[in-house]
Amino acid sequence: QVQLVESGGGLVQAGGSLRLSCVASGRTFSYYAMGWFRHTPEKEREFVAAISRSGTFSNYVDSVKGRFTISRDNAKNTVFLQMNSLKPEDTATYYCAATGYDTPRRNPNEYGYWGQGTQVTVSS
């Protein structure tokens, strides 16, 4: 019922910033709480951040707290992940996902729709 397309990944030096975007189509965007996950061979599908339907509540994995910010613009059917103070450990393929829950969710099994991913590489 929804299609997700990520963009904004790339190569950046440690300490730099990137802003990821995920554009949704197919049905009312505000129906879904949204999340960002990342995949590496070591950690596989790791939760990064999530945001409620309204954007009022958010949740982050401890390793990105204070550095990453998730936000959404329901008028533009878009969720963002602002990534500051990037570290080489942040290198991964980043995926956005949509869930029918109204609150931020950390469990990937609670998400029904996934984007194709965008690569983030942080050099040192």
Fold and architecture overview:
- With 124 residues, the chain is mostly beta strands.
- The protein has no helices and eleven strands.
- Strands 2, 4, 5, 6, 9, 10 and 11 form a seven-stranded mixed β-sheet that branches. The protein has a four-stranded antiparallel β-sheet with strand order 1-3-8-7, with no helix packed on it.
- The protein is globular.
- The chain starts with a strand and ends with a strand.
In short:
This protein is mostly beta strands. Helices cover 0% and strands 52% of the residues. Strand 7 (68-73) and strand 8 form a beta hairpin.
Unreliably modeled segments: none
Question: How big is the Rg?
Answer: 13 Å
Q: Determine the structural class based on helices, strands and strand pairing.
A: mainly beta
Beta-strand content estimate: over 45%
- How much is the average pLDDT? 95
Order of helices and strands: EEEEEEEEEEE
Alpha-carbon distance between the two ends? 40 Å
Report the helical percentage: under 10%
Largest sheet: 7 strands, mixed
Number of helices: 0
Which descriptor suits the 3D outline?
A: globular
The total strand number stands at 11
